[in-house]
Amino acid sequence: MAEIQQEIKAAGKNHESTKEYSLGEEILFLLAKIAGIILAFLLVFTFLFGLCRNQDASMGPSVKDGDLVMFYRLDKNYIARDALVLEFKGQKQIRRVVATAGDTVDITEEGLLVNGALQQEPEIYSPTQRYENGAEFPLTLNEGEVFVLGDSRVNATDSRIYGAVKVKDTLGKVMTVLRRRNI
């Protein structure tokens, strides 16, 4: 009986996996894990999300100069008051949607009119004025277009200059603003 128990113990020892890894193998395994995490992070921020630094004061006070904005690339179903990221003359801009497909936009002495209704914008502190040599008003938006303005209307380069923006040319919808203070 004792002989059988010894044979069972010996057989069990032969089947146990007690492989020891060298320090070099451990470091290589750790580096592979780090590379996998970095690759996953890059894929997520290339195809799903994006980061953009606000380069000017045209969206103040909601987005200030130097703030970082995180945006979602796949959501391009904009409604009025959404903030989006677009590219104009090689620079990323953050702008607010004020009108979507089918809307008629006009800028008069009274202010911003969408479909004939004067827009009440409590977070906008300066009047909305036309730019000379800018877009022609009234402007009716076609399917797949939005009209965007900066919150700081005096400082903004926006649809008053370059007209309606095609939704397919936008980079994505703003998800959150990361305040950058003394970084």
UniProtKB/TrEMBL annotation:
Pfam families documented for this protein: Peptidase_S26
Keywords of the record: Hydrolase, Membrane, Protease, Transmembrane, Transmembrane helix
GO terms, molecular function: serine-type endopeptidase activity; signal peptidase activity
InterPro entries attached to this UniProt entry: LexA/Signal_pep-like_sf, Pept_S26A_signal_pept_1, Peptidase_S26
Species annotation: Lacrimispora celerecrescens
Location(s) in or outside the cell: Cell membrane; Membrane
Top EC class, one word: hydrolase
Mode of membrane association: Single-pass type II membrane protein
Protein name, UniProt field: Signal peptidase I
Enzyme Commission designation: 3.4.21.89
Annotated Gene Ontology cellular component terms: plasma membrane
